[in-house]
Every structure is written in C-alpha cells, then in structure tokens.
Amino acid sequence: MKIRKAVIPAAGLGTRVLPASKAVPKEMLPIVDKPAIQYIVEEAVASGIEEILIITNRGKAVMEDHFDRAPELEDRLKATGKADLYEEVVAVSRLANIQYLRQKETKGLGHAVACARTFVGSEPFAVLYGDDVIIGDIPATRELCEAYEKYQKGVAGIQYVPREQIGKYCTLKVEKLEDKIYSISEMIEKPRDDQFISNYAALGRCVLPPDVFDILDNLPPGANGEIQLTDAMRQLAHQGRMVGVEYTSKRYDMGSKLGILQAAVEVGVKHPELAAAFRAYLKDFVKTL
Length: 289
Prior knowledge:
By secondary structure, the chain is α/β, with parallel strands linked by helices. The chain is built from twelve helices and 13 strands.
C-alpha cells in the first residue's frame, strides 16, 4: 500500500537551543535561507507524500504562516521585478496539502503522534521528526516507504551512533536482511549502560501501521515520564513487525546548537549562490584556528 500521509511532530519546547527558541520555534531556525521545517516538508513531498499533518503547540503559528500565501510580500516582489523570488515564495505555499493540530500538552513524541489518529485513519503513515533535517540525494522517507511496501512491517530509520552518545537516543537489536535493511527485535529508549544492545539507534524517521494508535493509547509513561514512540515500536518489534533502514542521507539535529551550525556550514558550501564565496571564507578562517 502506497504511503500517502505523513505526520511531523513539531510541538517540542526547544530547550536545548534557548534562548533563540523562546522567540523563534526551533523548526523555523534557518539553514542558510530556508527554515528547518521546509526541508522536512520538501523531503516528505519528494518521497511521494500527499498529505501532511504538523503537530504544533502554543507559539508556533509562524509555521502555518510560512506555508501560507503572503499577498503583500508577493505584490511587492512582482512590483519590483523580482520574478524569481516571487515564484520561490509562492512555491512554498504549494508544496503539499498541509494541516495543523495543536498538542495541548507536551507529553512526549508518542503522545504527539497519537494526536494524529483521526488524520491518519486506517492507512500506514510516515513520521518525520521535527528536530531532524535529513539531506541527501535519496530522500530518507522514500527509502523507508519502499521498505514498508516490500515487507509490510513498521520501518524505523536507523543509523550507527557512537557508544558514548547512544544513551541520548535508543539502542536496537538488529539482524541484517539485505543491504542497509535489518530486522529489529528489541528497542530500548535512552538506555542505561547495562541496557546497551548495539550502536544502532532509531533516528529521525519511521513508517508505521495504523494499529500503532491502539498501542499508543495503552502505553504507560516511559523515559522522562513521557509517552515514547520508541516504546510503541518496541511492541511491534516484539511481534516481529519492525524492520530498520540505514538511510543514506545526512542527518542534522536541529534541536542542538552544534547540529544547527553543522547544517548551516554543510549546506552553505553547496549553495548555488554562496558556495564559492563561502568556501573561500572558510579556508581563510580555518587558518586562524
């Protein structure tokens, strides 16, 4: 079954990037000239997604404005002959059919996804984490959707994580099925040292069957006292219904200051307008370190 719908949880408070996130939602922090959330939406569209639900909360209406029309700005761009910029601004509003839903309480990623039950209905769906921008030649979500269509099981995007960082994410028990695809039989969110299984962690993207909502409705709070989406996927894994795809694109953690800087630099050195000048600047700057 083709994956048509995607959920983007974007209701987090952004505490790791304060004080900036007090004024600007972290999802709206720019990577050169586009906000992070636009990269995520563009990835979903490039993966064949037709309908998107963004889970927001208080103070994040600016995301809705970004994907809406802006008549005053558009008129000014046309009047001043800036046709290219006009087309670029209008194109943002036409990316996809985007809906919005407020998460009234920030009770974890699992709770945010559970809010999407009515939107999703009885279809499998993709989840693109609002903290994670993933950029590459092949959209990560497309790789996961293709695996779901082949195996008819839940799919987690996975990557190798250094042992000292695994406690921030989760640890997986995996067995290779084919190139870049693994079966997953165990998942532990934010593991203690004695719970370490492997260096593989689920990061940034997943595709889930619709019955995951029944699991989420009955989940007790997990790590940090929150409803963890990983705990729901863990139940699917125990049922033999989860696989992992080691996606090939580069992930940037937009919930961290270092991730934001890395994204800006690595996108900047490839930007069609800025690459030459920015590369020259970096080469000169590195000599001063």
